[in-house]
Model the fold of this input.
Amino acid sequence: MQMQSGTTLGGRYVLRSLLAVGGMGEVWRGVDSELDRPVAVKVLKEEAQSNETFLKRFRNEAKNAAGLMHPNIAQVFDYGDQAGTAYLVMELVEGEPLSTVLEREHTVEEHRLVRMMIGTCQGLHVAHQAQVMHRDIKPGNLLIEGEDHVKITDFGVSRSHDQTTLTATGMVMGTAQYLAPELALGKPATAASDLYALGIIAYEAVVGRRPFTASSPVDIAIAQVNEAVPPIPSTVSPPLAALIMDLLEKNPKRRPRTALELAATLKELRLPTKAERNARERGAPEAIAPRRTGHAPPRVMPPSIAPTRYRQRPDAPSKRHS
Done:
């Protein structure tokens, strides 16, 4: 079914304009004619309709996100199928993905970053309490609106405690640059896995680049497992740098235990004033490096990972809900 402005889905959702195009779907600005409210409508692409994995992922997003009610989670209103075309109706967020902010600004001021992290933690806590692990926290899935208010979106690869995995044995889903080491090794996702991804985002936001890069997603996944996190520059406030390093511990048991605990820590974090920052930069200490915990672990090769399961970079900067 070809989507265009004016197309009506489910007898009530009228498409107005195309907002974004992703790997498996399109996101349209629309209106719910029955309730007279704006909505975002995600439509599965025609070529994806016959792919059972894409269909399961789409249904997963509908089922898992629909049960999550929180100001920091983009709410899902409805799910349907019309003429063989699956669609998802959700809250219209008038903002931009964090990936767009990073593309434009390269780094984020520390107080802004902490506000965004707190909002993300609050949303993640609700998801984790419902036993839903997002598994794909990345800048493209954090929509920023107003005064740095975060809306988490795209629960397409999330997994609840009563769902089977969407992947075949030895394969994982997610985005390699933000993938926790335990997921690269094929282990189950936990709350700590989502917090690791948030740590990667925080590192990227203060340093201006991701900690692990390579020529292929598989090589990046291997680096997540085996390589030490590059030291954070001394221009970053030591308390924030230390917290980021805690989030990027290879062993999930060494990370903050819950998103709620991390949010509380972030709220108590004392960040320097501009004057204090300038003074520190004039006599800056050495960069914050990972804590040494004895002998380096043996190099581990993750299980077979299908490169198509990853996207090499976050989604193109644009307003999006996928």
Q: What stands out?
A: Confidence is low (pLDDT under 50) at residues 161-172, 306-320.
